[in-house]
Amino acid sequence: MAKMWAGRFSKEEDEAVNDFNSSIAFDQRMAVQDIKGSIAHATMLGAQGIIAQSEADAICAGLSSILEDLQSGALSIDPTAEDIHMFVEAELTARLGDTGKRLHTARSRNDQVALDVRMYLRDTVKEIKTLTKTLVETICEISSEHTHTVMSGYTHLQRAQPITFAHHLMAYAQMFYRDLTRLSDATARMDEMPLGSGALAGTTYPIDRQMVAKLLGFSGVTQNSLDGVSDRDFCIEIASALSILMMHLSRFCEEIILWCSWEFKFIELDDAYATGSSIMPQKKNPDIAELVRGKTGRVIGDLVTLLTMMKGLPLAYNKDMQEDKEAVFDACDTVILCVKTFIPMLKTMTVLPENMRRAAAKGFINATDCADYLVKKGLPFRDAYKAVGTLVAHCIRTGEVLETLPIEEYKDVCDLFADDVYDAINLDTCVNGRDVEGGPAPARVKAQIEAMQKKLASY
Ligand code: ARG
């Protein structure tokens, strides 16, 4: 494809250099945004009398026909074009002749690309937010069925205190809800239209930036032309929000992987979301969850790529910044792919409450409750803690649990113990008793789920 800057240059570009320099392979996905941005720009040029109204009209019609042809497949992208911006402009000129050459008046590719990436991310983050919302809704639905499913909560991956499966799941709902709000924050800050920044120093033409912003659905315009073309915080912020989201998803996957191991067997994944082994006939592997956990590294890598690429750049535009796209696009693509696969995996898994309860019945997760029982009878907590520690050590030696330990043995350690201790350490009592805001008592978790569903409905 002939170069736009042929006037300044006397030699053709080397083919390998052209390929190296080109971004068309990955920025062609912004074709729709590029064309819409150009239509708004041309409309403004016409309205301001910077180009003739008839030419503005012809340019807008030409751009619309290019978009239609791209979408119908009648026009394909030229892989030798330097980037999507050059491709669209060249195609317009091929169709309209000299009129097409007027489109780039009062504009640079620097402000054009800054606009296109913002518009592309605005659309894509919207899709990610919808998916994330569905994920939180799904978690709420599954949780509603398990507010009485007692399981052990863990610290250090050691059985710690009694909770319910719903309470555990809802912890993730809270995390993903915050991810949702982080994405909204990032897109709100990105909501400034950069066209008019020109290459770096604005333009001498009497443009109307507010009009372009309005046409493209931005709530304002960037306030500094240097910043307008050299800011990529919005990519970094989105990649950062996506990295946090993936980190949450990865922790969830790690637990799913543990839960479907024979060591836990708290859940069983649907056959459609697991794979077999090529050699071991008994295997059912949680590959999907593992792959999501693995892909988290990619997204974090994308964030690091963006930060590293930007950290040494002098103002304003530098070609390094072309590297923003593959990183931020990959982060978006990966999150979409992972969340889309994760939701049905979660929906179709079988929960095994008996196994959760069986595991909860071992591991002395009611030891704190047993100590609290003594505290309620007047013993200072530290003394109660020590007494129950003695009982637990005894049980471990004899292979018993607190529930089955005879009352005499309790009394040997502390005479405040009476028959009502068995009710106090019953796992259901322990869960129900944790009746604080944010706690695992079924009524509290129900309230948590309802509050979340309400927040989601108005999100
Ligand atoms: N393809 C370029 C990019 O993605 C567009 C901007 C080019 N601007 C320039 N001055 N070379 O960054």
**Rg calc:** 31 Å
Question: How many β-strand stretches?
Answer: 6
Number of helices: 19
Read across the widest sheet, the strand sequence of neighbours is 1-2
CATH architecture of the largest domain: Up-down Bundle
CATH superfamily of the largest domain: Fumarase/aspartase (Central domain)
Structure in words:
The protein is mainly alpha-helical and 459 residues long. The chain has three domains: 16-105, Fumarase C, Chain B, domain 1; 110-207 and 217-358, Fumarase/aspartase (Central domain) (Fumarase C, Chain A, domain 2, Up-down Bundle), CATH 1.20.200; 367-425, Ribonucleotide Reductase Protein R1, domain 1, CATH 1.10.40.30. Helix content is 61%, strand content 5%. The protein has helices at residues 15-21, 24-27, 31-47, 53-72, 84-96, 109-144, 165-189, 209-215, 225-230, 233-259, 287-310, 324-348, 353-361, 367-376, 381-398, 407-413, 421-424, 427-433, 442-457; strands spanning 150-155, 158-164, 192-193, 220-221, 267-268, 350-351. A two-stranded antiparallel sheet has the order 1-2. Strands 3-4 form a two-stranded parallel sheet. Helix 8 links the parallel strand 3 and strand 4 (220-221). Arginine binds next to helix 6.
